[in-house]
Each structure stands twice: as C-alpha cells, then as structure tokens.
Design the sequence.
C-alpha cells in the first residue's frame, strides 16, 4: 500500500503544550463549582485528545463517550442529519458537562449534540475542542476552550481520521491524497 504524503501542521510538542494549557483553563473554570464534572467525548475522533486532556485536569471527574453519526465513511463532507449511535452510560442531570471534541467544522454535529444534552438538565454545558475551522462554520457554536484554529484543509492525526485511518499519528497533518 502506498503511503500518502503528510505535511505536519501541528507538531506533537505543540499539541502537548496546548493540552496542558487547556487543562489549566479548565481547572480554573470549574474550581469553584461544587457540582460533579463529567467530560463527554465524541467517538471516535476525541479519544486521543480526551486521554491526554483528562490527565491535565486536576479536579476529580468522570469520563463518558457517545457516538453520533456525521460523516459517511470515506467522505470528507459532513451530513446535517446527526443521530445517536451510542448513548452515554452515565446520567448528566445536575452535573457540569464538558464536551470534548476533536474538531469543529460546520458545527452541525456539536449544535445537535448540545441541544440533545441540554434536555437532560445538566448544571452547565461547555465545549472544548482541540481544533476549529471557523471559515467552515454554518451554525454558530460557543466554544469555551479552544486549542487551535486552522484554515479550511482536511487534516488527520491525533485522533482525526480519513476513512478511519491515520488516527494514531502523534501530530496533526494535512494529507496529500
Ligand atoms: P461538523 O458537524 O461539520 O462540525 O463535523 C464535525 C466532525 O467532522 C468532527 O467531529 C470530525 O469527526 C469530522 N471532521 C471535520 N473536519 C475534519 C478534518 O479535517 N479531518 C477529520 N475529520 C474531520
Ligand atoms: Mg468527530
């Protein structure tokens, strides 16, 4: 199998530094809340980011995951129909919910997920995304904790995939197909 060329956009060191900073901001944000904190990762893209981010947060917290459909396999275009394929195992009622996402593109996935989770009466819902592509936004989303803003390029690595591949790369890169 031919390996496609990969241009590093965000190095492993830069990601690691940013994750530490995000952890500190999250610690600061929730330090006075007496509610339970729960981090919710969207599968599968957020797993790598989640595993590093949760270890940068001092406040005791739960982690849980949900799977929602957005892209068809092999497509680089988001669909607007977002469905829950795997729901949370935990209740979020009365808790401080922090959604952990790999990347926000059009914003439709997050808008739908936040709307669905809001009906479960959490104490608060905030969003932490490692990457955002603001020029692609079709719906307004409030991102409380943001790692990197990138231009409109399809990127892979550190959890991000193309057709389920390249999630294992320690850096974020642009794939030359
Ligand atoms: P949205 O609903 O358009 O915001 O899509 C968000 C989801 O699309 C993310 O959670 C990713 O799974 C996926 N996605 C968006 N852009 C990229 C990219 O550049 N590389 C890999 N996945 C992406
Ligand atoms: Mg995703």
Sequence:
């Amino acid at each position: 199998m031919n390996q496609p060329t990969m241009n590093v956009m965000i190095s492993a060191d830069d990601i690691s530094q940013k994750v530490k900073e995000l952890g500190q901001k999250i610690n600061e944000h929730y330090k006075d809340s007496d509610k339970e904190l729960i981090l919710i990762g969207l599968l599968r893209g957020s797993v790598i980011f989640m595993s590093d981010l949760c270890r940068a947060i001092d406040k005791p917290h739960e982690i849980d995951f949900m799977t929602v459909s957005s892209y068809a396999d092999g497509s680089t275009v988001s669909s607007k129909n977002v469905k829950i394929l795997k729901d949370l195992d935990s209740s979020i009622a009365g808790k401080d919910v922090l959604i952990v996402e790999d990347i926000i593109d059009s914003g439709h996935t997050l808008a739908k997920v936040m709307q669905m989770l809001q009906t479960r009466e959490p104490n608060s819902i905030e969003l932490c995304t490692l990457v955002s592509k603001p020029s692609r936004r079709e719906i307004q989303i409030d991102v409380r904790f943001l790692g990197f803003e990138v231009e409109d390029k399809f990127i892979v690595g550190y959890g991000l995939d193309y057709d389920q591949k390249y999630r294992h790369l320690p850096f974020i890169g642009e794939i030359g197909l």
